[in-house]
Amino acid sequence: MQKILSTPLARALAAKLGINIEQVTGTGPQGRILKADILAFTEHKPNEPMKVLNLNSQPRIQTAMNATPLNPIVLDGKRVKVTSIRKTIAKAMINSKNNVAYFSLVNEIDVSHLWDLRKSIVEDVLKTTGVKLTFLPYIAKAIIVALKEFPILAAKYDELTSEIVYPTTINLGIAADTIAGLMVPVIKDSQNLTIIDLAKEISRLALAAREKTIKSNEMSGGSFTITNYGSIGALFGTPVINYPELAIAGVGAIIDKPIVKNGQIVPGKVMNLTVSADHRWIDGATVGRFLLRIKELLEKPEILGVL
């Protein structure tokens, strides 16, 4: 007998409403039954005859004189067809929200030392490698190191077998802002790459996404995703998980802020790092420790060059 694919939320709702889930048609990936499918099913059950209103047998209702019949609302304004990419993005966002028990934690990170380190080498790196070194490769490297220590954040949940599947490699998704919409190229085997290697791959994949030359295999198989809304000046966000991944990191902008060091208030460079995760499988304490490990690495960035 073939197992019915359904989300935990859908199964719980079906049980609560007394619905036989085998009668419900799923609209999720591979026909998976979602919460929305259960709600839609309740509005018209297949075995329930539709009630037909006999207008001749009903008492007439007195209406206001010269009342205007109800018509569908007509939206005024310029109309633009939604692109297939936008529809795909919309479907992915709803799929994530319907299937994940969301929570987010944030930590403030002092990146003053990282700021100075990058500034001291950025010109030499550009001359020797042709790569313009940004802060994102450092952040990516710190996250990769932390993922190796907290592998649950790079895992996936297999609903067919009720198992957590831990990846053998870390395939890191980097969200890219394109004219067509949000795209998430994936850096394969990222745990084997240096900071310079990561910088090259981030640049190459982002360019391919924007020029629409990216390959399908470069957009799939991700273990964990980073979204850098700090690049447009945003300080803080609650990023949406790239389902079926279990977590995502959101990077805020680096800003000037007074900080306390050795009991003294001094000028510093700080940024917020947010991690959203699926609370069904990942505890808040785990995400908290994961964030602290990333904070440790970014506040002592010289160690990232040897990890």
Any overview of this molecule?
This protein has 307 residues and is an alpha+beta fold. The chain folds into 2 domains: 8-42, E3-binding domain (Dihydrolipoamide Transferase, Irregular), CATH 4.10.320; 101-305, 2-Layer Sandwich (Chloramphenicol Acetyltransferase). The chain is 32% helix and 19% strand. The chain contains 7 helices and 11 strands. It has helices at residues 8-17, 35-43, 84-99, 112-129, 136-149, 195-210, 284-299; strands at 102-110, 156-158, 163-165, 172-174, 176-178, 181-183, 186-187, 224-227, 247-251, 255-261, 264-278. Strands 1, 4, 7, 8, 9, 10 and 11 form a 7-stranded mixed sheet that branches. Strands 2-3 form a two-stranded antiparallel ribbon. Helix 1 (8-17) runs parallel beside helix 2 (35-43), helix 5 crosses helix 6 and helix 5 packs across helix 7. The relative contact order is 0.15.
Summarize model confidence as the mean pLDDT: 89
- Low-confidence blocks of residues: 47-65
User: Per CATH, what is the topology of the largest domain?
Assistant: Chloramphenicol Acetyltransferase
Series of H and E elements:
HHHEHHEEEEEEHEEEEH
Radius of gyration: 25 Å
Total number of strands? 11
CATH superfamily of the largest domain: Chloramphenicol acetyltransferase-like domain
How is the main sheet built?
A: 7 strands, mixed
**Spatial separation of the terminal alpha carbons:** 49 Å
